[in-house]
TrEMBL record:
Pfam families: Pirin, Pirin_C. The keyword Iron applies. Binds 1 Fe cation per subunit. Fe cation binds at residues 75, 77, 119, 121. This is RmlC-like cupin. CDD domains: cupin_pirin_C, cupin_pirin_N. Residues 41-139 form the Pirin N-terminal domain. PANTHER family: PIRIN (PTHR13903:SF8), PIRIN-RELATED (PTHR13903). The lineage of its organism: Eukaryota, Fungi, Dikarya, Ascomycota, Pezizomycotina. One of its GO terms (molecular function) is metal ion binding. Keywords: Iron, Metal-binding.
Length: 321
């Protein structure tokens, strides 16, 4: 763990030099099974399942597909941050504090729930009837920040730096962190997290440094990627989550020269938090008493949920029943 990382100052790029001499081993790899979620949405959940629980600071990872007429109507959160990365379509959001907005393909929204928020996330009705597809990652908040005021930050596709490696065979969107000497533009989450979107052409090779001691995983959106460490190579297909061991300083990935398609994967690393995780649905706290408190606060519209009283989102009313 880096010594300079503070939760208020938030340097996402650690001071110590990043190296690629010891690729991390794969701890496990598993398929994210598709399931129903919200109202009519389909998600492939990997983190937050019996396969991978509470991989600090990560609480949940959903690869979602929301068809027209489906969505995530009004619901509460407390104690975590959500990072939504839209891959296709568009998604509208609205909360009880009067925040409203939209993200489109390639955009991200970072939401800090803090002491409490109630919001709705609803897809656009695409003219061709296609679903709205994206990733949503839940990140735990340090205990001392769980009672902070809620906030949103949007990151537009055009604001995300892109880097190229291996003679053009590797392209990476540097959403948060550093790749190929390219740094991300903004600090968007309270808990330091790296988020890199790699596309690797057949024959392409990636050596990507990661902050030492941070937990890391990759989620395979397309194609098959071969991850290697100490002479052991493992092909990982689409919709699988690859969890890396904490020992080592990097990940090494390749796509076979003769592969039919490019591979695309999201590489994520985060600083583990030394605190208990007690989760009850959308409430993420550090003790059972705090779960009871969160439910009581939500039901009585108090301690952060005052604005939930009689509030209904406009976009949630558009549900097709």
């Amino acid at each position: 763990m880096t010594t300079n990382t503070t939760f208020k100052g938030l340097p996402v790029i650690p001071d110590e030099p990043l190296t690629t001499t010891a690729p991390r081993k794969i701890q496990k790899s598993f398929l994210a099974i598709e399931q129903s979620e919200g109202a009519g949405a389909r998600v492939r959940r990997s983190i937050g399942t019996p396969q991978l629980r509470n991989f600090s600071p990560f609480l949940m990872l959903d690869h979602f597909s929301v068809p027209p007429g489906a969505g995530f109507p009004d619901h509460p959160h407390r104690g975590q941050e959500t990072i939504t990365y839209l891959l296709s379509g568009a998604l509208d959001h609205e909360d009880f504090a009067g925040h409203a907005g939209s993200i489109e393909a390639g955009d991200l929204q970072f939401m800090t729930a803090g002491r409490g928020i109630v919001h709705a996330e609803m897809p656009r009705q695409n003219e061709d009837g296609s679903p709205n597809v994206g990733m949503q990652l839940w990140v735990d908040l340090p205990k001392e920040l769980k009672s902070c005021e809620p906030r949103y930050r949007d990151l537009r596709a055009k604001e995300i730096p892109e880097a190229t490696g291996d003679n053009g065979k590797v392209k990476v969107k540097v959403i948060s962190g550093r790749a190929y000497d390219t740094d991300s533009l903004k600090e968007l989450a309270y808990t330091p997290v790296w988020l890199l979107d790699f596309t690797v052409q057949p024959g392409g090779h990636v050596k990507q440094a990661l902050p030492k001691g941070w937990n890391a995983f990759a989620y395979l959106l397309n194609g098959t990627t071969i991850f290697s460490s100490e002479g052991v190579s493992r092909p990982v297909p689409q919709y699988h989550n690859v969890v890396f061991g904490t020992a080592g300083d990097s990940i090494e990935a390749t796509v076979e020269e003769g592969a039919e398609t490019a591979s695309r994967f999201i590489l994520v690393a985060g600083m583990p938090l030394d605190q208990p995780i007690v989760q009850y649905g959308p409430f993420v706290v550090t003790s059972r008493d705090e779960v009871v408190q969160a439910m009581t606060d939500y039901q009585t519209h108090s301690n952060g949920f005052e604005r939930a009283y009689n509030w209904e989102s406009e976009i949630g009313k558009n549900m097709v029943h």
